[in-house]
Amino acid sequence: MTQAQILTQALIFDVDGTLAETEDCHRRAFNQTFAEFGLKWQWDPPLYGALLKVSGGKERMRAFWHRHPHAVPADALDELIAGMHRRKTEIYTQWVASGAVALRPGIARLIAEARAAGLRLAIATTTTRANVMALMAGTGLNPAWFETMACSDDAPVKKPAPLVYALVLSRLGLAAPLCLAIEDSSNGVRAAQAAGIPVVMSPSAFTQGDNPAGAKAVWPDFGGVSLAMLVG
Q: Any catalytic annotation for residue 75?
């Protein structure tokens, strides 16, 4: 076992795009919500891929509104976004809790290997806790396996800001170099880096073009990645 393996005490997982390819499910939930609210907004995959540069669903809707400010009066925007985000969460959580998405290749095995090796597990995500719990219900992950989950409910300043990672470090009581972050996007890599945490990256379907600068390793998926490779 290498020195890096000895030092790594915790794995910190991002969720959307990292644990599972959830983003197209998010996209379709947004589109259904827009239709229910009478908006002619439709986010196709290329547009949604561009909007993912903005972390957080509410923030993404606000960024899109700035491109189409005449669709909704500015003084009604906050209330509308809050209402649409609640409805979008309802739609999305129903879908993923029923098994609409699967874990990405290698994720279940890596989590099992990490637990067997005595590594601590945590979540650091810009999505809501409701979304995380629904995904776990639909994929068979046990929330009890993760010592802490820091979500957008806890850290409103989203990635690439390091707030969510700093919160996880504080809850774990570990120094940043003793952890390893697992991400799919440049925003996530930058957030982990800013918190001082070593990070590896596996781009998702929507983050294939992201800059991996700062990641100590990049893989297309984790199907052929062992725990020793991950933390080595």
A: no
pLDDT of 3 reads 46
The yes-or-no answer on residue 16 being catalytic is: yes
User: Would you state the pLDDT for residue 6?
Assistant: 52
Residue range 23-97 in CATH 3.90.190.20: no
What is the mean pLDDT of each successive set of 10 residues along the chain, which is 232 residues long?
A: 65 98 97 96 95 92 90 91 97 96 97 97 96 97 98 93 98 97 97 98 96 97 95 88
Buried/exposed code over 26-47 (b: 16+ C-beta within 10 A; e: otherwise) = bbbbbbebbeeeebebebeeee
CA distance 110 to 117: 10
* Closest to 148 measured CA to CA, from 179, 180, 123, 173: 123
Distance CA 147, CA 156 (A): 20
User: How many Å apart are CA 200 and CA 198, to the nearest integer?
Assistant: 7
CATH among 3.40.1160.10, 3.40.50.2300, 3.40.50.1000, 3.40.50.720 for 3-21+103-231: 3.40.50.1000
- Distance, C-alpha 169 to centroid of its chain: 17
